[in-house]
């Protein structure tokens, strides 16, 4: 008989975005290794991006408990958010987020996490749960997990898809806020029976900074294995392979200044080679802030660059496999050095040429180079323009290029990663990890 893992995760299908796939894969593949899953998650409409097709991947045996209401920030933005189209105005979002950073600790999901904690407590009290896993962002779910683990004496895994956001990705508004964030992060790291990080850089920094953990492991995001692509599954994946030189980015376009770098690179390239405009198409697929679309129009690129919005995950994967160049970037700054975008593993699985705008010593940059891709400096439109032009000229002369799929990528398939997690859960529940407390 399988054991049961209770998961606290705000993002779960039909909600979409990069944070959904890691948790979804846990619930899909852990049962084969002796662990059934119960997920306490947000309501079906509690985020500005959703993908109903992902709900079809939720295993029939997964128990789902929805805590509706969303975050305080999403409530403020409810009338103007993108919904299923994944299109929103980013201008109103920034000041509201600044207010949330000041008044809501550790994040704007704190109210939801408290209600999710109560729902999880009721499920734990009902019995049959052997371990607890909380996954962030939002970081507030870990505080809920700490309270639950202490109350119910259940082994607890704290999974960090990203480092503690209020410290590493945003500047705390005051010294008091910084101290509070540090204390809350320390509570989670010290009390969790196992801490997981999605990047090796994050795990290494925890060790280097002397932050105490009972056990720490790097468990990458990985990718979902797929069979051969089906063109019929991607009606939005235009143009057809071979008809145009197709440059593709998939993922959320928010707080991504290198999207503007791409637009400037295209303007520069077409200024010196106007004939290329007729044979180049760029698809930036995923939920996006409208400022990128407005900038493309202002630069005269509306006929070249398309923003299809949020797509079903299968459509995004088909776009990746049909691309002549896949673009990768992430927000700039030291705080983001620990971030390895989950889509990178999908890009490498697609076996298409990757051009990444990343810091040279970045972990993600190292993975791109290890797989044979190219890394170019962030913010350098001229360097990107030259690289795209070089690849376009090679495409015109020799046809579609293909990068070899790296053999080491198989270690990052999500079924393999779930097996690793199951082994750690078995170790936590094989004895009584609470006997020393």
UniProtKB/TrEMBL annotation:
Matching entries from Gene3D superfamilies are given as: Glycogen Phosphorylase B
Which keywords accompany this UniProt record?
A: Glycosyltransferase, Transferase
Name the InterPro entries on file.
Answer: Glyco_trans_4-like_N
Record flagged with keyword Ribosomal protein: no
UniProt domain Glycosyltransferase subfamily 4-like N-terminal: residue ranges: 17-222
What Gene Ontology molecular function terms does this protein carry?
glycosyltransferase activity
List, alphabetically, the SUPFAM superfamilies matched. UDP-Glycosyltransferase/glycogen phosphorylase
Q: Which PANTHER family match?
A: D-INOSITOL 3-PHOSPHATE GLYCOSYLTRANSFERASE (PTHR12526:SF510), GLYCOSYLTRANSFERASE (PTHR12526)
Q: Please identify the protein, giving its name as recorded.
A: Glycosyltransferase
Q: Which organism is it from?
A: Eiseniibacteriota bacterium
